[in-house]
Design a protein that fits this description.
heterodimer; A: alpha/beta; Nucleotidyltransferase, domain 5; 5-stranded mixed sheet; 4 helices; 5 strands; B: alpha/beta; Rossmann fold; Alpha-Beta Plaits; 2 domains; 9-stranded mixed sheet; two-stranded antiparallel sheet; 10 helices; 11 strands; 28% strand; disordered C terminus
């Protein structure tokens, strides 16, 4: 199964990004093969508005079933949940750390947005 | 003639200048409060509320019986306001600017446009001043549609002398306020922040292509940097309003200063003559 992590770089050692909508990259990890690929999100990082909505669209289109991030705004949450994707909140320094938490089931799925709009 | 009163910095005295000029002229005129995020002209002019209507924006409504989930609407949306999940468009009305591109490009013609309230437009009559005020609803983000509705209502009196109180800054709401006017008056103050923002305002007004001049407010506060800058750039200084405690006292009580102090009535009339002579005749539109 594929799970997305919000990241500040292209490796597992990259910083884990607390922000969803304006994360620079998504690391798409495949739990069956223990491999990953990188999904660029720079276009939404630069968006004037609606970054959360379009980042969520991007994640939905990538075909992932689960998402691990820091915080999720209300509009992004609406899109993500409409697509039936499970979201996990992690408080981690690196993607590898967030991945370890995810694998050990130390983190719980979110039921809704964690922050208000335009949270920084 | 339509004259817009603008500034880069907030709090330099746009509303003070607009209201006092309107009253000092003592003639039938139209005053537009385009500072729709915090309209306050009516606090000073008072007057009677004549009518009130909703200001709306047209947002898309999708007929899911017709929509085939092709995503063209989301692709053409410049404002990231549409996501398509499981073949169904999700519309984020707070992000929509009402441009209509989604409805125009929808291959199935599944999108119609429906009004979405963003604020109100209020018409007041206060003596010889007809005031049209735009007021953005609390929690709404887009000022431009409300300003557009104010200007639409003003069309009915387009031959009347019009003074327009602009919002501060240099962003879309200001550009919308400036557009279609004949001249701009930039109200400035001689402080470092006032100078910095005046330069931004000058660039904006030049971009829109209006003849403009500067009124120095709270003259005596700060230094001569505004006048020096205007001289070096060839920008006319249309007048100076002194940093007078008596003005502050009256203004803080919600009073129109020219109603109480004759010397300022005279001063505002002089500044108006400068506006007409300096900015009006260039376009032959001074009346």
């Amino acid at each position: 199964m594929k799970v997305a992590f919000t990241a500040g770089g292209e490796t597992l050692e990259s910083p884990f990004d607390n922000r969803f909508g304006r994360a620079e990259k998504f690391i798409i990890y495949d739990t069956d093969s223990d491999t990953f690929e990188v999904l660029d999100n720079t276009q939404n990082l630069q968006a004037v508005q609606g970054a959360g909505v379009q980042s969520a669209q991007h994640i939905v289109d990538s075909g992932v079933k689960e998402l691990v991030t820091g915080n999720l705004g209300p509009k992004a949450a609406q899109v993500i949940f409409a697509a039936g994707i499970a979201v996990y909140h992690a408080n981690a320094e690196t993607v590898a750390e967030a991945l370890a938490m995810y694998k050990s089931k130390a983190i719980k799925p979110l039921k809704g947005a964690t922050v208000e709009e335009h949270w920084v | 003639m339509k004259v817009v009163i603008a500034s880069g910095k907030g709090g330099t005295g746009k509303t003070f200048f607009s209201v006092n000029l309107a009253r000092a002229l003592d003639r039938e005129l139209l005053l537009l409060d385009c500072d729709v995020e915090e309209p306050n002209v009516a606090l000073f002019t008072k007057g009677e509320l004549i009518k009130e209507r909703e200001a709306t924006l047209l947002i898309p409504q999708v007929d899911l019986n017709i929509c085939d989930g092709c995503r063209v609407c989301a692709d053409v949306c410049e404002f990231n306001a549409i996501a398509v999940i499981g073949g169904e468009p999700l519309i984020f009305e707070d992000l929509c600017h009402g441009c209509g591109a989604c409805a125009l490009y929808c291959p199935q013609k599944a999108i119609s446009e429906i009004p979405y309230r963003v604020g109100v437009v209020k018409h007041y009559k206060a003596g010889k001043i007809s005031l049209i005020e735009g007021r953005l609803d609390v929690g709404k983000a887009l000022a431009v549609p409300v300003i557009r509705e104010v200007k639409r209502d003003a069309q009915a009196q387009r031959d009347t002398l019009t003074l327009l109180d602009s919002p501060p800054g240099t962003s879309c709401p200001v550009v919308w306020s400036l557009t279609g006017c004949d001249a701009a008056v930039l109200v400035a103050e001689g402080t470092p922040f006032g100078m910095h923002d005046l330069k931004l305002a000058v660039e904006t007004v030049k971009e829109v292509g209006l003849p403009f001049g500067v009124v120095i407010n709270r003259d005596g506060l700060g230094d001569e940097r505004i006048a020096d800058y205007c001289r070096s750039q060839g920008i006319p200084v249309l007048g100076r309003i002194p940093n007078d405690r008596e003005i502050a006292r009256l203004y803080a009580q919600g009073e129109i200063v020219v109603d109480h102090l004759e010397k300022y009535r005279t001063l505002f009339r002089e500044i108006w003559e400068n506006i007409e002579n300096t900015l009006g005749e260039r376009y032959g539109s001074a009346k």
